[in-house]
Amino acid sequence: MRVSVVGGAGYVGGELVRLLLGHPECQLAQVTSASHRGKPVTMVHPNLRGFTDLRFVAPPDLERCDAVVVAGADEPGQGLSLDDLRGRAPLVVDCGTRLRLRHQATFRQWYGTESEPQSVLDAAVYGLPELHRAGLAGAPLISGVGCSAVGTILALLPLARAGWALTSPACVEARFGSSAGGSQPDLGSHHPERSRAVRVFAPEGHRHAAEVAQALGWSSEQLSYAGVAVEMVRGISISVRCFLAEAVTEREVRELFRATYADEPFVRLVAQRSGLHRLPDPRWLSGTNLCDVGFSLDRSGLRLSLFAALDNLGKGSAGNAIQALNCATGMDERTGLTFTGLHPL
Amino acid sequence: MRVSVVGGAGYVGGELVRLLLGHPECQLAQVTSASHRGKPVTMVHPNLRGFTDLRFVAPPDLERCDAVVVAGADEPGQGLSLDDLRGRAPLVVDCGTRLRLRHQATFRQWYGTESEPQSVLDAAVYGLPELHRAGLAGAPLISGVGCSAVGTILALLPLARAGWALTSPACVEARFGSSAGGSQPDLGSHHPERSRAVRVFAPEGHRHAAEVAQALGWSSEQLSYAGVAVEMVRGISISVRCFLAEAVTEREVRELFRATYADEPFVRLVAQRSGLHRLPDPRWLSGTNLCDVGFSLDRSGLRLSLFAALDNLGKGSAGNAIQALNCATGMDERTGLTFTGLHPL
Amino acid sequence: MRVSVVGGAGYVGGELVRLLLGHPECQLAQVTSASHRGKPVTMVHPNLRGFTDLRFVAPPDLERCDAVVVAGADEPGQGLSLDDLRGRAPLVVDCGTRLRLRHQATFRQWYGTESEPQSVLDAAVYGLPELHRAGLAGAPLISGVGCSAVGTILALLPLARAGWALTSPACVEARFGSSAGGSQPDLGSHHPERSRAVRVFAPEGHRHAAEVAQALGWSSEQLSYAGVAVEMVRGISISVRCFLAEAVTEREVRELFRATYADEPFVRLVAQRSGLHRLPDPRWLSGTNLCDVGFSLDRSGLRLSLFAALDNLGKGSAGNAIQALNCATGMDERTGLTFTGLHPL
Amino acid sequence: MRVSVVGGAGYVGGELVRLLLGHPECQLAQVTSASHRGKPVTMVHPNLRGFTDLRFVAPPDLERCDAVVVAGADEPGQGLSLDDLRGRAPLVVDCGTRLRLRHQATFRQWYGTESEPQSVLDAAVYGLPELHRAGLAGAPLISGVGCSAVGTILALLPLARAGWALTSPACVEARFGSSAGGSQPDLGSHHPERSRAVRVFAPEGHRHAAEVAQALGWSSEQLSYAGVAVEMVRGISISVRCFLAEAVTEREVRELFRATYADEPFVRLVAQRSGLHRLPDPRWLSGTNLCDVGFSLDRSGLRLSLFAALDNLGKGSAGNAIQALNCATGMDERTGLTFTGLHPL
């Protein structure tokens, strides 16, 4: 099938291009960029030199194809409305934020700007296959996911589904690599300011909390969600501190996670008792579509820490979008997403 | 006054040497090292080249002096008991862990090894001037402090003193630079494994929690204390999530912090509403004896996040030890500790 | 074909395992490790969790197979001589140093230890397909390559073949990531010492010079070869400063490189006139088997700088070994080596 | 004496402010910034919180004072000509580039823009005390220095003075930390692009070569000067490869360096035969005014590698400017510049 990427000059766009070039069932048709039209794709994505001769086309030059994937915040589909995009292809996957929240009011509350019409939100499926696999099959409009939301959802999903009660809000600490901020330079991402930073940029109320609450069927008040910038380029690391209403055993937690993710190709349980790599760490996930989840329980059985790690450009956006596209079109979900990750890196 | 450093080949030892060489009221007498005896101090501390010609002496060759400062875990005073040290100098400041907890049972519970006699613990003052300034004056035996404990104590102290109640344990996230692990190579600190790591090495129950609980007069159950290794060499960054029983205003929090630290020379309140540097970050604290503290309150007034940042080798150990020594001997507390820190770094 | 890895617990070993698990024509038979026998391979290579259930076997338990690849310095084939290995498999690729130099005397001169018998050296082919593709076909014994030697050889090969004369030794500056030092911790790779280091560890006479000279047919005196450790984990970056005896044009250099590497699947010419990514940088080569080469010529046409970048664990060792194995066994050289690399990273 | 800083919002400006605040003989009068007028100096220089209450003033509001130091490229004295500045203070130290080259033609050749009048260039002293100490005494107009030029000059000066002949151009490799690029964000300094980069941004003909040639009395043709960006924030590391016309002994080189720098307070010879810290590394020089120089000689006695390391914001600009100011005003040259540097960092 022929797939085009809209807004392909940013980091999510580059990762989509990379994944589609290696996807055995897809053919990369066009890559749009308002600012780089006419230039070789490899000028901004040097890793792809020798793998493609494509040049960026202006957004209005987007032709009909079988699916369009819209990259995220860096380069929204300038001049191309959702209607335009849907007119070009029977399947649109939009990695941006506009389709993530199901209700207009919620969107406006968290983003402070006008939302898509409610009918559009109703038509879109939140594109996390681990949550909505059935709904994705045949879906024409699919939303992307928040990079840290993916990890937090997958860390908390077993508990939420099992209905384990917490005595206070789940404390989410989401640690971000710099690529999550996109490809546009600003002072916060200026290397002398960003290098080795441990910067709490969102002490409370990070927007991804809205997605997590929606996905789990929780109130957003049940989450205390902080965002911290740390020294890495790719990668999201999540810790969630939970105080349980009733004590559990480590075995119960392990079984719960195993049962939840037994058939998931991209979720691995990483929860050893010892060793250097006993809990999830994004270091060895760069380039993959994996999300590692883990946990640690204290001796009382009441304090449960959950962990997740992923590549924000992989399972946190572009990789997940391809997985959702695979689901939507009836392909094997893993197609084109088999990279194992590197260690050390 | 003549001051000697015991165990001076590690990172805390090196920082003590650096600070004492620049201390206008102290003369660095001897630096011991069991493993480097006879070698120039500058062989392991290359920053000090040209600033000292001292060579390491074997621990038994430690001579009488006015004060001894024992560096931490890297090189405990091999062959020199606390009694030996106290026989050499009327003032002993021990940066290690053995004197930090006031009760033998607590020490054994957290460290799993035998403690010093209770009489020795009774004689020692926990060396954090912000807590025990009066007690330090003239004290002959002073304990060092845990690097992340300092930040957590100073972040929570205003609340603890004001008696603000929390509805669940305070969630402490302590992020560590690699120098906090000491100067002995191991797999966890091997560069290919440690670079850019986001490694939760203590999901719950980090030992520094015991010091914090003791300092605040809390039960250690009131804390949930996690340790995470992140990519930096020097520096500790602390976040503490608190759910308050009664709502407060931002102004009240600010006033509380200002009142608590108005006269403290080394505690700065960093809590702006915006800007890149609005909350504490250890990046610009390397080499200083400062601890920056800050906070963020959500709109409900019930969710209060506290922050702290410091240099683990500065205010987190060696710098704080010199400050305590200044207090103990009646010097101006700031003597030799005036470095401002660097930015960018 | 069934392939086993000897000494698979180090970084080269882990990369060999990763590549063989993804190789469509190979089946990973066994992975030996003297120190980790019985443990899951994924305990030391966390990226491979879920991709293999293999456990390390002791070296003597190595069974017959179709090919053995010996990882490098970290874990030489303890207890297994080259004869033992050749008795187990008709093809042995040894990533270590013992087969790299063709003559015993040269080996002893550069390594200061006893070499393999001359008859063994005579039987081995230096495993760089860009140099010895024909010789590799059907070869039973193949040598690995020095990671920085690969880049330097491929940067200089066009000139050497064209016979362009230099007026002074070629000044090679090879910049190394920390993984090139192997997986054994030591003080030099201790994170607080290695992080952000710019450490000239070999001011002159790095051993890889011997390989380069041999490959180019030069005297080692024609090279001045320095090694510098810089802050990265994977990656080798090479600069070679050449002063030409006769002026050339940029076009001539470009044509020379294009002609030399026109049919090479893993060598890319990266030599743009402007742009952020105009010259080779190892940042976007991690995990690949690519070697990017480039050049810059000054206005006089006499000062030519050559550049190369590669992943020391990819084209610099494990990847190249698989490429050589592909060549030796008649497979398409690119099989299992199609990863494009990531950007940003 | 009262000293003002012009263009104080950049990195050189911040370092000047820091040094002047700690200078026992200077009082920081004003700090100008065209873009930050009215804001607290500590808003952009967070390390200085609590050390100053100064706010930036607009350049035209600069008042008369005893000396003005102009920070570099980030914020040239907008609206203030050199004449304006000289009208405000009897001593002007300009860290920028406009006074560094002695002849108008040379300036135009290297910078491609119009230079100051020749009379102004004639009046200015190149502000490197190790070169022009006598000339600085009482000088009214002092030029700043190129950060990598300082290291290269101090590495080559002993040879140049001794008249040792080279058989080919000295190959200078200057490795730069990101702060050398200034405080204005751009794509090249965007963290995802800059982190762990090994980017040859100037393969030949870096502008600092002009300063070095001028300082040594060489033709710029005698230098081949490359600039490489590596992963650090502060710091310049220099290697210079020299092929000598006549063989020398290590002892001769050592004596030459010792003799040259015996009385220099800020130049240290770092040239041990072994050990982790045997050659200069900028890691432990951050915040200092030191320049470490070293060398390595091969067995033939003909290949001599020279090394230097410094903090680009210290001895490479702001620190050196204060040293020059000290010289110009008859103060002890070391005043306010006694920081030893930190290790590890």
What does this structure look like?
Four copies of one chain form a homotetramer. Chain A has 345 residues and is of the alpha/beta class. The first copy, chain A, has two domains: 2-145 and 315-328, Rossmann fold (3-Layer(aba) Sandwich); 147-311, Dihydrodipicolinate Reductase, domain 2 (2-Layer Sandwich). The first copy, chain A, has eleven helices and 13 strands. In chain A, the strands form two sheets. The first copy, chain A, has a seven-stranded mixed β-sheet with strand order 8-9-7-10-13-12-11. A six-stranded parallel β-sheet of chain A has the order 2-1-3-4-6-5, with helices on both faces. In chain A, helix 1 packs across helix 11 (314-328), helix 6 runs parallel beside helix 11 (314-328) and helix 7 packs parallel to helix 9. The radius of gyration of chain A is 20 Å and the shape is globular.
